[in-house]
Design a protein that fits this description.
The protein has 173 residues and is mainly beta. 5% of the residues lie in helices and 40% in strands. The protein has one helix spanning 61-69; strands at residues 7-13, 18-21, 27-40, 47-59, 75-88, 94-108, 131-132. The protein has a 5-stranded mixed β-barrel with strand order 1-3-4-6-5. The longest helix has 9 residues, at 61-69. The protein is extended and about 80 Å long. The relative contact order is 0.16.
């Protein structure tokens, strides 16, 4: 049976990203993102806003981008997967924590929350707009050896314009 482990979070950073580096030199970034849910209290009828905090971890180039461009208050869209880990606290009690391992990230809100020199007005990076954790999807193509420019290909003959006058008017919608 197939299964899916996918999370989408849209929210705001509650603090600046924490960046660390592994012995291999790869970056790890951790952020806390707040999302809000509004509901009406059944007894009083007043609106309530509930805030949920999500721990999100980024790895590699994606972690470097997070450290460079995001700060407290930044709006962000993150796609990833849930991962639960088991640890022992300082009192020797075993505990569990569920984190989001980010696979894609997009900054929202334009220049807000990016500081000086961000240089982006749509939250995107270059022309792509989003960031993905999988480096093989973002690699530049291999450089081609320089060769003489090929001769231009001949143009195909123009096609006649289609004749729609013989079509029925029985459109099914």
């Amino acid at each position: 049976m197939a299964s899916v482990n996918k999370v989408i979070i849209v929210g705001n950073l509650g603090r600046d990203p924490e960046i660390r580096y592994m012995p291999s030199g790869d970056a790890i970034a951790n952020i806390a993102v707040a999302t809000s849910y509004r509901s009406k209290d059944r007894n009083t009828g007043e609106q309530k806003e509930l805030t949920e905090w999500h721990r999100i971890s980024f790895f590699g180039r994606l972690a470097e981008i997070v450290g460079q461009y995001l700060k407290k208050g930044s709006s962000v869209y993150v796609e990833g997967r849930l991962q639960t880990r088991k640890y022992t606290d300082k009192d020797g009690v075993e505990k569990y924590a569920t984190d989001i391992i980010a696979e894609q990230m997009q900054m929202l809100g334009g220049r807000q929350g990016m500081g000086e020199g961000g240089g982006m007005d749509d939250g995107g990076y270059g022309g792509g707009g989003g960031y993905e954790a999988a480096p093989q999807q973002r690699q530049a193509p291999a450089p081609r050896p320089q060769m003489a420019a090929p001769a231009p290909a001949p143009r195909p003959a123009p096609r006649p314009a289609p004749n729609f006058s013989d079509m029925d008017d029985d459109i099914p919608f």
